[in-house]
Design goal:
The structure is a homodimer of 223-residue chains. Chain A has 223 residues and is of the alpha/beta class. The first copy, chain A, contains eight helices and nine strands. Chain A has a seven-stranded mixed β-sheet with strand order 5-6-4-3-7-8-9, with helices on both faces. In chain A, helix 1 packs across helix 2, helix 2 crosses helix 3 and helix 6 packs across helix 7. In chain A, 37% of the residues are buried. Chain A binds a DNA duplex (22 and 22 nucleotides) through helix 3.
Chain lengths: 223, 223
DNA sequence: ACATGTGAAAAAATTCACAGCA
DNA sequence: TGCTGTGAATTTTTTCACATGT
């Protein structure tokens, strides 16, 4: 909001962006928001990088994929960079999200407060258990999975979260694709296959603990 | 178990293992377990890789960091490779885990069934809310956070999970380090700093959705 | 014939280091 | 002076391709 001055960047052109760059972008965003809350108006690659364990050059190179956002001699204006990164990530708008599976994890996600702040709102939930369908949790209606296509269209939902048991994950994913979703976040500990036009992000909680286990057993890397 | 034959590997020597390699190892493990459940006894780099979207060479190179596990002309014996990867990741034993914070997410993690199968057991939970301390959830006692050091020592816990609000995360992390934990999985959406000898893995649910948002907005990579 | 393990080649990502602007 | 943006150098990771073992 407010602000102007056109140091308009070249919004990328040909080559595709490395995934690692995008994931650092999210970290920059989180840290910038933190800096703003603590009252800072500007920052620099040399402050931001080290806060996250990266070098200053890395920060600048990452941002350079998307344009020019800094001011030589000054650094970056936090609010401005936040807006820019939001634009890049696509979170400068609100995304309605569909949640599949109202088990322990599903309910926790429904109540999680961290999504809205970043532009995501769980708008509809689905389950196949008739004990659950028709109820409302945190103001979100739980529909029968059979209604997915209709509800997804009604709310213009593009993103969905899989929080069903592993055995049901692929089938659920297929329904989601059929209903028209184009991005799927999968918490089930299985590989799911999707058409090329549907994007996915997988989070396997046990795998994350395995990574931690490895790091602990092999601690000597001193990073 | 059983099995023998010493094609004993060189268990790595000098250089450190890329993180990406370790994370693929976990995926290989998950897929191998899936293959075994579907009755397969052996597999090959050329089957395993493509199942996960990698090349066969990548699979072989990754495994080669840790030793020789395959049989030319045959491939890999699933059970054997599973055991080997477990040994590498350190999940061939059981890890007691401490859980900090019994909010929505904490309770969901406590009830999550996917951990035990991979060698992790939440052994003790902690909170500061006196409404919660002293209760038992899923057979796990909720202690007051002040008892952390004593309980961690009693059970020989090394790994801990942070599921407290963002504002409390760094303080909780400090207590965990003080209590002697050496690996921390952090669900709070903030950067936490830890001494070098303490390992961490961070999971920020909103960030994962941001990654998905980016992928959907920029879908054209055709991977 | 089939599939591993691995040097060598290629590609990609990171770091360096500096010209240029505030 | 302070800090960005960026070519060039370096390091890391991935892919190739083939000798070797079954």
């Amino acid at each position: 909001m407010a602000e102007s001055r056109d140091k308009t960047p070249a919004p990328d052109s040909g080559s595709s962006i490395p995934r690692a760059v995008v994931s650092r972008l999210s970290l920059y965003l989180r840290e910038l928001q933190h800096l703003v809350r603590s009252g800072q108006e500007t920052t620099s690659s040399n402050q931001l990088g080290p806060l996250l364990g990266f070098t200053d050059a890395q920060v600048r190179k990452d941002l350079a994929y998307f344009g020019q956002f800094g001011y030589p001699g000054i650094g970056y204006r936090c609010q401005e960079l936040i807006q820019a990164i939001r634009g890049i990530l696509g979170t400068d708008r609100e995304w309605p999200v569909a949640l599949m599976g109202i088990g322990n994890l599903g309910r926790a996600l429904l109540r999680y407060k961290g999504f809205e702040q970043q532009g995501f709102r769980i708008t509809a939930a689905f389950d196949i258990d008739s004990e659950k369908t028709g109820t409302t949790i945190e103001g979100v209606v739980v529909y029968d999975a059979a209604e997915m296509e209709e509800v997804v269209r009604r709310y213009g939902i593009q993103l969905g979260v899989i929080a069903v048991p592993a055995e049901a994950a692929q089938g659920t994913a297929d329904s989601m694709v059929h209903a028209g979703l184009t991005g799927i976040m999968n918490f089930a500990p299985v590989t799911i296959s999707l058409p090329d036009h549907v994007q996915q992000v997988g989070i396997d909680l046990a795998i994350e603990l395995e990574q931690l286990s490895f790091a602990v057993v092999n601690r000597h890397d001193k990073r």
